[in-house]
Amino acid sequence: MFNYPKKLMYTETHEWVKKEGDIYVVGISDYAQDALGDIVFVNLPEVDDEVFVQEPFGDVESVKAVSDLYSPVSGVICAVNEDLLDNPALLNEDPYRNWLIKVEDVSDTEEFLDAESYQQFCESQG
Amino acid sequence: MKLLFEISSKGRKLDLIPPCDTEEYSFNDELLRKEKLRLPEVSEVDLSRHYTALAKQAHGVNDGFYPLGSCTMKYNPSLNETVAGDKNFTNIHPLQPAETIQGCLEVLYQAKELLCEITGMDDMSFQPAAGAHGEYAGLILIKKYHQDRNDHKRVNIIVPDSAHGTNPASATMVGFKVINIPSNENGGVDIEKLKAAVGEDTAGLMLTNPNTLGLFDPNILEITRIVHDAGGLCYYDGANLNAVMGRVRPGDMGFDCIHLNLHKTFSTPHGGGGPGSGPVGCKNILKDFLPALEVAKNSGGYYFYQPEKTMGQVRSFYGNFLVVVKALTYIKSLGKEGIPEASGNAVLNANYLMNRLKDYYDVAYDTICMHEFVLSLGRMKREHGISAMDIAKGCLDYGIHPPTMYFPLIVPEALMLEPTETESRETLDQAADIFIELFKTALKDPEKLHNAPLSCYITRPNETEAARNPILTYQFENDQ
Amino acid sequence: MASYVVNTRKQQQQMLRELKLETLDDLFVDVPASVRLESLNIPQGQSELEVYHEMSEISSKNTVFKHIFRGGGAYNHYIPSIVNAVVSKEEFLTAYTPYQPEISQGILQSIFEYQTQMCQLSGLDVSNASVYDGAVAAAEAALMLQERRKSDILVAETVNPQLLQVLKTYCESRDVKVITVKAIDYAVDFNDLKEKLNDTIAGVIVQSPNFYGLIEDVKAISELTHSHGGKVIMHTNPIALALLKNAKELDADICTAEGQPLGMPLAFGGPYLGIMTCKKELMRKLPGRIVGQTVDTNNQRCFVLTLQAREQHIRREKASSNICSNQALCAMRASVYCAALGPDGLRQVAKNSASNAHYLARKLMEITGFELKSTKEFFNEFLMSCPIDNEKLVAGLAEKGILAGLPLGKDILWCATEVNTKKEIDNLVEIIKEVL
Fold first, then answer.
1. Range with the lowest mean pLDDT among A81-85, B318-322, C44-48?
2. Which of A21, B235, B466, C27 could serve as B206's disulfide partner, Cβ 3.0–4.6 Å?
3. What residues does each domain of chain B span?
């Protein structure tokens, strides 16, 4: 029932990653946006902030919950999707078009799942 | 219903203040406000009716059964209000000379003596204005204690996963790192996990006992000993004291400091969210660090003094004084027998209600509970699509305030019920019938519950829209 | 003994039997025997009449002053009758926090109206539902401004000492550095401010009217602070906001105030009201409860607690503040007070207070030895020298039922409000002459 685009890589904390040259683009998966429900705010870091593998870099708020966003890579933020600050509902509408951060100078990455393994992982979560 | 600003009519006013009979002082024009001040312009009858209409859209303990878990919504005696309205208390300036405030100081002193006896503490400050504020002051006591001993490595506060959200938030405010430990299968502290968590970096443990599942932890003495052996201190969250007051004292269980919620246990009202009062109490080892100022007594009467190594102030003056007046009035009314009678009946009522519901609802922990118990609607949600929220909203159509929903976090689809001692068996029976009726409706006609409430002033509000596009003030027309 | 327990003894026995228990003590089996309490060592319970008498006996040991010329953070204003009438309604008094919006519209709407009124006073965009008191409001405001590279707080030495104490406690526990800005002539010393301002400063706290009653040049402080990338917290007396330039006009970013003057009795220091308003850009950093407008499923306007994901019950150890209540009933007092007075009435309270204070100052200066300590403009408080030992003067006036100004060093901080009439002030001056 959820969308798992083949061209993306995924993490068990439900982020997706796309590599564009040396830059890693990070967002949250369709499964994640559904589990969170109506997203009302996104807390994002600033450009030039450092992020580290599997450490929180921000969070997303729904009405009565808040969930950390974990960085799939270590590096330096080179872009932040400011549109989300004004319109967090974009994450519910199209989580794959609406990325969160772009990271450069990447020194480390976690072991990514491909679309098929990630789908299996999500389905095993019940 | 209209807002104050919508019933406003230009030029309407009350005649409250006489014209000035001294020469009018004119400030230099550049100091004066130029911006329009759009406060309501209304008559007294407008105001009276406005708030009477608003009161009809509020629900207090006086409106009906209020089994809101963790909040101790007991009846608030009228006498408390009468005494707190005494002009000899309300008209006292906080900075009057000591000889003119002996009555106020006696209130603080007596309340301290009585509450120290009830909790097994040695000293207490009434400066914190609410439970979370008392937690904050209590954690500073712990921090100061370790600092004073040059023990700077103690930076961790251990908090069970069943704790109130304020516990970890308060610990963070004091600069501690929070170590969450999971509960065991009986809902209590997992002794092995606690042993593994304590060490030279342990500043202390924060515990609510009975905990937020409504269970008294039978291992309490071992728990506090483990923390003490590791060099940490034990903090008692007094939110649930109503279950055990007069029967067992936090001080005897091994706790070094506590906060109380006078607005819960000691029946000063909640006031729609405040003012409360969250006194912080402690054993002698911590009393030098208490907030300034403290009250003492000698042959000359009562006086203020500054504890030797005081943390300073956490609030202006001496706390929510009139709330302390109400709590003192309440304690004097109940006295040595009334207090354990209240806790005994709070626990009896909770067990009675749980017993009447457990053939229908899943009880999170099926054992004797304390003053409250938790139902889990996890199975109901899976099998019938009815959530804790749906049952809670269903209560509204029967005139009952819903139980606490979705807390504690470790129970799926939790509903937490705390009837308190000021409800009768008849009320509990009526409430049980209503909860059973709701259960049956959930199986028969789930759609009805999804749409509940239908008899309130509003139906379910769109909270997502409120959070996504916040409108936090009235939008005046022709806003500049 | 009044335990307010409703069940009769017989009912209790029946209920226990149904639970297959014999006594109330059987419910406490999990309490270790070694710590079970035999009995409390406190007096026996009493009837309502006895308690009433005992509490009246205690309260009668206080002295209520008929004439009050003392402020210093708590002000003796007239409280319209409608204020007490409204907040005595049990539906408001005995309700919990409005977590269930369908049956709490009354409280939610009243807070929304309060938020709007506070924003009208300060001129800023957003208000929370209130915090514990004015000093805590200022301290929480300082914590709102914490950023990784900017965390130090500058605070004018001329703020109320209670505020300074609370600020230091709050900041110390969070490892935030608090630096005081010196005063010159009882107001902010701009040379010292300039020296201490740099780009590590998160914010500057200034109180105006300040502790000495003087009107600070907040506008200039804002300009200076903003030029270094810091924010300005203006702490004020809400009554003054009706007459003097407000936070928006002075370009402050956050406005905090002690709300006590808006309809709260002196009450030996509490309950009072912490007012917090801020510019829209800081909205998500604002601690405490906030009420917002939305619609229900029938598209009818209604109100809910909103932006809750900032708060401790959701964010737990990551919350920026642990506050989980507000002073709802005090906020309601402030709201009814503002509505009862209206814009003209509130301005009149401010004007009368200032006029009476200036009259008092002029009359006192007619007596040798009473000199204003500062030539700057003041609102309704002023610091004056005293020709004799100030404690002696205070004691002499106390005998005549007058609470004199607050002794500070060798001086006295005098205060007047709209309740201090010309006759009362003239009388005070005559009595002072006698005491001297």
1. A81-85
2. B235
3. 79-334, 339-462
* Chain C nearest CA to B386, separation (Å): 18
Residues of C with CB under 8 A from a CB of A: 284, 307-309, 314-315, 318
Of C100, C150, C99, C132, whose CA–CA distance to C322 is shortest?
C132
Contact of A89 with chain B, judged by CB distance below 8 Å, is answered with yes
* Interchain CB contact of B248 with C (< 8 Å): yes
Give chain C's end-to-end CA distance (angstroms, integer): 54
pLDDT for C158 beyond 50 = yes
Task: Beginning with the edge strand found earlier in the chain, give each strand of the sheet holding B362-363 in spatial order.
Answer: B362-363, B373-376, B414-417, B404-405
Q: Is the pLDDT of residue C316 over 80?
A: no
Q: Which domain holds residue C383?
A: 67-75+343-435
Cβ pair C31:B340 closer than 8 A: no
Distance from CA of C259 to the nearest CA of A (A): 30
Q: Which of C261, C344, C346, C342 has the alpha carbon at shortest distance from B43?
A: C342
Pairwise CB contact (< 8 Å): C312 & B166: yes
- Looking at chain C from residue 323 to 342, which residues have their Cβ under 8 Å from any Cβ of chain B? 323-330, 332, 335-336, 338-342
Write down which residue in C288, C306, C335 finishes a domain.
C335
pLDDT tens track for B135-186: 999 999 999 999 999 999 999 999 998 888 889 989 999 999 999 999 998 8
Most A CBs within 10 Å: which of B381, B464, B471, as the mutation test of the A interface?
Answer: B464
* CA-closest candidate to residue A96, choices A14, A1, A13, A12: A14
pTM of the model: 0.95
Do residue C127 and residue C262 come from a single domain? yes
Euclidean distance between CA atoms B475 and B123, whole angstroms: 50
Query: What pLDDT is stored for residue C320 in this prediction?
Result: 72
Rounded to a whole number, what is the distance in Å from the CA of C236 to chain B's nearest CA?
A: 14
On whether the CB atoms of residues B140 and B311 are closer than 8 A, the answer is: yes
Subunit contact A63:C308, Cβ cutoff 8 A = yes
* Contact between chains at C166 and B315 (C-beta distance less than 8 A): yes
- CATH number, domain B339-462: 3.90.1150.10
pLDDT of residue A124: 86
Residue of C nearest to B63 (CA): C91
In a domain, A120, yes or no: no
Which pLDDT does position B170 carry in this prediction? 92
- For position B289, what pLDDT does the model report? 98
Kindly state whether residues C93 and C191 are assigned to the same domain.
yes
**With an 8 Å Cβ cutoff, are A88 and B464 in contact?**
no
Condensed to tens digits (0 to 9), the pLDDT of residues B328-358 reads 999 999 999 999 999 999 999 999 999 999 9
Residues A41-57, mean pLDDT to the nearest whole number? 91
Report CB contact under 8 Å: C308, A64: yes
- Cβ separation of B467 and A41 shorter than 8 Å? yes
Question: What pLDDT score was predicted for residue C324?
Answer: 77
- Note whether C96 and B66 are within 8 A (CB): yes
Residues of B in contact with A64 (CB under 8 A): 406, 463
pLDDT given at position B321: 98
Other beta carbons within 10 angstroms of residue C220's beta carbon come to: 14
- Residue A25 maps to which CATH number? 2.40.50.100
B79-334: in CATH 3.10.290.10:
no
Q: ipTM strictly over 0.90?
A: yes
Distance of residue C308 Cα from the nearest chain A Cα, in angstroms: 7
